[in-house]
Design a protein that fits this description.
Shape: globular
Distance between the termini: 24 Å
Bound molecules: alpha-L-arabinofuranose
Number of strands: 26
CATH class of the largest domain: Alpha Beta
CATH architecture of the largest domain: Alpha-Beta Barrel
Helix content: 10-25%
Largest sheet: 10 strands, mixed
Strand content: 25-35%
Number of domains: 2
């Protein structure tokens, strides 16, 4: 048992934690949209207008705030006009990035907006810059958000939607340094300025425009982008960072790994903190007033696909290791919520670090789902100051802080989320709290690093009531078991 001190200062308010930090991402990739979310109205799987009821209900329990769509790499070859109007007339296309399968465009703009309405979340549209045109993107915005009389709005009405939708979040291109056109930063930044000019605000709709930012620690992309893209052009830039230990070739499987791979994964995910810090330093140089935010619109673990599944479908299981990764990332985003305005885990169902897996009519909630549930009270809360004694420990070749924490305040209540990544040691935390607070309730998610939920045993890893705490005169004493995530409500 390792003893450490944690001090919480509820009176020192830091920044608002935008609910969008708890966002998700859905791409036309493998079984994310088709089968995972959209089964069509004629399916035997219970659905409302084609959307799986079980998936929608599970996501609503998370208070899902925002959903990004249609990609990913798919976004830069998606032509939205093929996805509206009578389904029998919709043109098909080959999804060249993801498995070379035929996309029948039966899930398009109207279906996505319907999904967001059912979920009660904000839509986040990722526009096509790589293979689209300025006119195409401009008309998509007009189609969705204008109430004027025009061919685009008439077409929307003809296709069954009278009133304009509200659309706030608009990404102008995706990974344009790679699958979105292999552009240089200078070329993309100028194209971005061009495209965004014609993405108009119709009526009282106000777009929040997001430019394609860097991949991981590519600081030179950020430097060049920030030289050209100014706050009058963009509200935010994106960052994509996947947790891929060792290398793309050696990252391994979701459920089969040893302790060395586990700790390397944790070190790799912790690296996002220094990535965020350095990108923000560069952004601050060009935008000292902090007008441009950072949107981490793709993050999560990327493992080898499950044996026997289509390599282009990126289907992977999800263990306690993924849960620890999720908790650490969400704690880091909370801590940087003054500039990290949104984050979207990749991806929502059946792809990469999914919160939900489906198999035909079956559904399961992954350990990562439970972390999002345990953290949801941070949404729209105010992060508060805290100091945790150093918990850095050596694990084979890596040396990492074992414990991660974030704390926030909302409606007079504190939410504290803690994660102990150490696989063999418990942490006894002596928690000092300034002010009159006591722990009222607590939850824990814990297990062996490789534990996961299967369709045979979908509740193997689930949050339980946590009782290993005691309220004291100066705060509380809390014992975090190895490989655990704990939420305290005070
Ligand atoms: O999430 C899978 C893919 O990862 C996305 O399509 C792309 O943007 C990223 O490289």
């Amino acid at each position: 048992m390792i003893k450490k001190k944690l001090a919480l200062f509820p009176e020192i308010e830091k920044s608002k934690i935008n609910k969008e930090i708890y966002g998700h991402f859905s791409e036309h990739l493998g079984r994310c949209i088709y089968q995972g979310i959209f089964v069509g109205e004629d399916s035997k799987i219970p659905n409302v207008k084609g959307m799986r009821t079980d998936v929608v209900e599970a996501l609503k329990e998370l208070d899902i705030p925002v959903l990004r769509w249609p990609g990913g790499c798919f976004a830069d070859e998606y032509h939205w006009k093929n996805g509206v109007g009578p389904k029998e007339n919709r043109a098909t296309m080959i999804n060249t990035h993801w498995g070379g399968v035929t996309e029948d465009n039966s899930f398009g703009t109207h279906e996505f907006m319907e999904l967001c309405e059912q979920l009660g979340c904000e839509p986040y549209i990722s526009g096509n810059v790589g293979s689209g045109t300025v006119q195409e993107l401009s008309e998509w915005i007009e189609y969705m958000t204008s109430d004027n009389i025009s061919p685009m709005t008439d077409w929307r009405k003809q296709n069954g939607r009278e009133a304009a939708w509200k659309l706030r979040y608009l990404g102008v291109g995706n990974e344009n340094w790679g699958c979105g056109g292999n552009m240089t930063p200078e070329y993309y930044a100028n194209l971005y300025r061009h495209y965004q000019t014609y993405c108009r605000n119709y009526g009282d709709n106000r777009l929040y425009k997001i430019a394609c930012g860097p991949s991981g620690d590519d600081y030179s992309w950020t430097e060049k982008i920030m030289q050209i893209i100014k706050p009058c052009h963009a509200d935010a830039i994106s960052l994509h960072y996947y947790t891929v230990p060792f290398s793309w070739e050696k990252r391994g499987q979701a459920t089969v790994f040893d302790e060395n791979a586990y700790y390397t994964t944790i070190a790799c995910t912790r690296y996002i903190e220094s990535i965020i810090t350095r990108h923000l330093e560069i952004m601050n140089k060009y935008d000292p007033e902090h007008k441009i935010g950072l949107v981490v619109d793709e993050w999560g673990c990327w493992w080898d696909v499950e044996t026997g599944t289509n390599p282009g479908f990126l289907y992977q299981q999800n263990t306690m290791r993924d849960a620890v990764v999720a908790a650490i990332n969400l704690n880091i985003f909370n801590e940087h919520s003054d500039r990290v305005v949104m984050a979207n885990i990749a991806q929502v169902v059946n792809v990469l670090q999914a919160v939900i897996l489906t198999d035909g009519a079956k559904i399961l909630k992954t350990p990562t789902y439970h972390v999002f549930h345990m953290f949801k009270d941070h949404q729209e809360a105010t992060s508060i100051a805290h100091v945790l004694e150093d918990t850095t420990a050596a694990h084979g070749e890596v040396s990492i802080p074992d414990v991660s924490v974030s704390a926030s305040k909302k409606d007079g209540e504190l939410t504290v989320t803690l994660c102990n990544a150490n696989l063999s040691e418990s942490y006894a935390l002596d928690v000092h709290i300034s002010g009159e607070y006591a722990i009222k309730s607590a939850k824990i998610l814990t297990g062996a690093m490789g534990d996961y939920n299967s369709f045979e045993n979908p509740t193997a890893v689930e949050p339980k009531d946590f009782t290993d705490f005691e309220n004291t005169a100066s705060g509380a004493s809390v014992t975090l078991p190895p490989c655990s995530i704990v939420t305290l409500k005070l």
